[in-house]
Specification:
Helix content is 56%, strand content 11%. The protein is of the alpha/beta class. The longest helix has 59 residues. The two termini are 30 Å apart.
């Protein structure tokens, strides 16, 4: 076997596939390829949307806008009993739920008499209406169904970043929609006031009971207080206690003052009594008499000094002055003693006064202790009575406030904009709904097309062969749709089918630069892909060049070559291998052709055992010298082993892939099994390509070949044996 090294299929890895750029046209091609499906889904969805828009009964919606303030208008100076803490985060959520409460919905239904309205199953008989009114809340199925229907049509929509709320209601009748929204808003405000009034009433009733009980307690406390006064003989105890407290305070202050004065005078007296020279004491020096005597003494001493300058010491004038000086000094000493005795007297008087005030203070303390002992029970009874009176006064005040609050009809909720009768329905909006149907139909159609394309894992186009298989593409054979499948045209008639096989012949010719005899094996993954037709047509197109071509039908289980070429089945290959015929007897030339055919022959019980490796090697090598091309039509690789046995004995293997017939993984497995035998894989023939079905793809990639080049259909040649071979067989044979 000659030739270069085998061609190994190398399917692109996922990372390489992801790296390849996907052109926008490829997505468009998917949609165009399934255009009928896309169009069907688009038309169906659009038709349904149009019918729905035209047949749906119009629904009208009216909305009222209400304002819910956090704080109630501050009419009263005191806090109400039923005041709500609107600063809590859940306050508005609670109000929204109250707007959608079943109780409020029931009141609206009863107020508007909606049970008689056709939207709520009306009209109803008077007996049925009386039964509904007499039933307890939640006990009437008719009312409960009406409430459920009402709430389904109601929407509460808070206005973002505000305290406004939209109350919207839907109805088939525009007037009813507006009336329901307005009644709901009004009854909601009324219900809020009723809740507040009920709370105040309950509080007032409770306060009245508490006031009566508290009055009885206060009376009992007053009687107990009077009894204590009589037992202890206490009369006007509060005044006596006040006087005693004042007296104790005054005596304490006086005693402190007197003690301070006594201490000062005692210190002064001790200082004077212990002085070395009493005449030098400050108090003595401040005495006017002492000051006059000192002046007189100084005058006498100056006179004595002057007399001594003139007279002797014993002079009468000197003696007289000396005696006067002595007399003056005695007067000064006597006056000093008198000042000391006065300080002593002041000290003793202060001490006596202090003792007197201290005694009076102790007497007052004793009196206060006695009064405190006697007033213990009195104080307890007095506190009990005062506390009872304080509670009673608080209850009376709160009761009066509650009475006033009951009469106050203000609310923190009010209607800003009442609902008006809508002029146009909210649904259906025919233009919008039909447009949405068009968009949805287009989206679903395209989405379904992409989904089915994702699920479709077959080989459909040459691009799939390149990307998914990584094997050389030898030729694309288009599907034909004329009565009586034409195998090949030999007389120069041009057609995409003929040129497809010519392209295959050219690709095989380029596989071997030298012109030596070649043995080709044609196989496929599964039956029905057209490997037999491809083998026959390939042999015919090779023979059209004038060379010697032998077609061997190696599919001993399901032979088709002899049928397609109108030849005999036996003797054939099986007869040659078992020795029942010679090559000259088995090889035949079909009428109207220039090729030689070795049919399958007589049916063999075990073809794989018959076509052993050594037997077939010797057989094929013996034929190589007589023919330029030998084409082996073998069974598919998947079911049986004959193709894998013969592949290493050939110069190349051609794998026929039926377009949109076999999963790509199955084809990959076939290529891998061929490669494992050591055979040379020449490439893949994409057979039965749906050129007309995928005209957008082939028009883009092969427009020059399948489109514009054959702009006018070629004239169909007349049927002539030897010129055109007609093969009438089911499509599955291809």
């Amino acid at each position: 076997m000659e030739g270069t090294s085998p061609v190994t299929p190398t399917p692109p890895t996922s990372s390489e596939s992801e790296a390849q750029e996907t052109h926008l046209w490829e997505y468009i091609y998917i949609v165009l390829r399934r255009r009928r499906l896309v169009l069907a889904v688009f038309v169906a969805v659009t038709a349904l949307a149009t019918l729905r828009a035209l047949l749906t009964r119009p629904v009208y919606e009216a909305s009222a806008q209400i304002l819910i303030e956090r704080d109630t208008p501050n009419v009263l100076t005191f806090k109400e009993v039923a005041q709500v803490d609107a600063a809590r985060d859940d306050y508005y959520q609670t109000q929204y739920k109250l707007l959608q409460s079943r109780l409020l919905a029931r009141r609206v239904i009863e107020t508007m008499n909606l049970l008689q309205d056709p939207e709520f199953g009306g009209p109803r008989s008077p007996e049925e209406m009386e039964a509904v009114k007499a039933a307890a809340p939640g006990a009437s199925p008719v009312m409960e169904r009406a409430i459920d229907s009402f709430l389904r049509k109601l929407r509460v929509l808070p206005v973002k970043n505000s305290r406004l709320v939209l109350v919207a209601y839907e109805s088939y009748v525009p007037e009813m929609a507006a009336a329901a929204a307005n009644w709901l808003s009004q009854l909601y405000i009324k219900q809020t006031l009723e809740f507040r009034y009920e709370t105040s009433s309950e509080a007032a009733q409770w306060l009245g009971q508490q006031i009566e009980e508290q009055k009885a307690k206060v009376e009992a406390a007053d009687l107990a207080l009077q009894k204590v006064k009589e037992q202890e003989g206490i009369v006007n105890i509060e005044e006596r206690r006040t006087l005693l407290e004042q007296k104790l305070k005054e005596l304490g202050t006086a005693l402190t003052t007197l003690r301070t004065d006594r201490l000062e005078k005692e210190a002064l007296y001790n200082q004077m009594r212990n002085a070395a020279n009493p005449e030098e004491l400050p108090d003595v020096m401040r005495s006017p008499l002492v000051q006059a005597l000192r002046i007189e003494l100084a005058t006498l001493e100056r006179s004595q000094a002057q007399l001594l300058e003139r007279y002797m010491d014993q002079h009468p004038e000197v003696v007289k002055v000396r005696n006067q000086i002595q007399e003056t000094r005695k007067k000064i000493a006597a006056e000093s003693q008198r000042v000391i005795r006065a300080a002593e007297n002041d000290y003793k008087a202060a001490a006596a006064q202090e003792a007197s005030v201290s005694s009076a203070l102790e007497a007052a303390k004793a009196e206060a202790l006695d009064l405190s002992r006697r007033s213990v029970q009195y104080d307890n009874a007095k506190r009990e009575a005062d506390a009872g009176k304080e509670v009673l006064n608080s209850l009376l005040s709160r009761h009066k406030q509650t009475d006033v609050a009951q009469e106050l009809k203000n609310s923190n909720i009010r209607i800003v904009d009442a609902a008006s009768v809508p002029r146009s329905p909210v649904r259906p909006q025919k233009t919008r709904d039909i447009a949405m149907g068009v968009a949805l139909g287009l989206f679903l159609g395209i989405g379904l097309a992409f989904f089915l394309d994702y699920l479709d894992n077959t080989i459909k186009t040459p691009e799939d062969v390149r990307k998914q298989l990584g094997a050389p593409l030898l030729a694309v054979i288009p599907e034909i749709s004329v009565p009586g499948d034409i195998v090949i045209i030999q007389g120069g008639v041009e057609s995409p089918l003929a040129d497809g096989y010519r392209l295959l012949r050219t690709s095989l010719t380029y596989s071997w630069p030298e012109s030596s005899p070649r043995i080709l094996l044609v196989t496929s993954t599964s039956a029905g892909e057209g490997k037999t037709v491809t083998s026959v047509n390939l042999a015919l197109i090779l023979a059209s060049l004038g060379g010697k071509v032998l077609l061997i039908d190696c599919d001993l289980r399901r032979p088709q070559s002899n049928t397609l070429l109108h030849a005999k089945r036996s003797p054939g290959l099986s007869d040659l291998l078992v020795g029942r015929a010679r090559p000259s007897e088995a090889i035949q030339r079909p009428a109207g052709t220039t090729l030689s055919l070795l049919a399958a022959g007589t049916r063999a019980p075990s073809p794989a055992d018959l076509m052993t490796l050594q037997t077939m090697r010797d057989f094929l090598e013996g034929l190589r010298g007589f023919y330029d091309w030998i084409v082996l039509d073998t069974p598919p690789v998947g079911p049986v082993a004959e193709a894998l046995i013969l592949a290493p004995l050939t110069d190349g293997v051609v794998v026929v892939v039926g377009a949109e017939m076999v999963p790509r993984n199955g084809v990959r497995h076939t290529l891998e099994r061929v490669h494992e035998t050591g055979a040379r894989l020449l490439g893949v023939v994409l057979n039965r390509a749906q050129v007309e079905k995928h005209s957008y793809y082939y028009g883009r990639y092969y427009g020059h070949y399948y489109g514009r080049y054959y702009g006018a259909p070629a004239p169909r040649p007349a049927v002539a044996r030897g010129k055109v071979a007609h093969i009438r067989e089911k499509r599955s044979a291809r």
